[in-house]
User: What shape does this take?
Amino acid sequence: MTIDFKTLAETMTVLNLNLRAPSGSTNTLLLRDADTKTLTVLNSFTISSGGALQVTNSSLLLPSGSLTVNGSLQLDSGTVTVNGGLETGRGGSGSITIHGGSLVVTQELNMGFGSADTATLVMNGGQLIVTNGPTFITGSGTAAIIVSNGLFAAKDVVMGTGGGGPRQGSLTVAGGSVTISGFMSAGHSVAIGGESPL
Assistant: This one.
């Protein structure tokens, strides 16, 4: 399914959105070249297993709700603004890739919540802004943030501090820039690597 400049503005606001596919299949929502129109999800947006969202030169807004990624989210350009929390790898496996544009989370970013959950966030460019709430790189599961280009601006970063499970969290900075205005806390089985200073 594609949402673009031809999509009527009055159809661009929804209450909830759940993007998923049967096992072994992928259901992709392309939000591409939507001009000045913004896809607005008023409550919750869940990308479940088999679901994929690709944002190119467009805007996605969650004015008060949460975004859950247990499928995949790819941001090529444009803006994704989540005024609730963002969870990836909660009750499943999630991946987020940022090539450009801005992903702004005004509350917490929570990755790899449960013991069997996995989450990966890869930055090849653009911006990840989580400056009002904490970033949890795994609770009890396995999670990684890999920054090779772009800017990751965070308030507090907490890694590997959940109870039970592998609790494996990693932050790799191979390029780009990472700024932390608050504190960093590292618990069990944590790797911090790279060349750029934090």
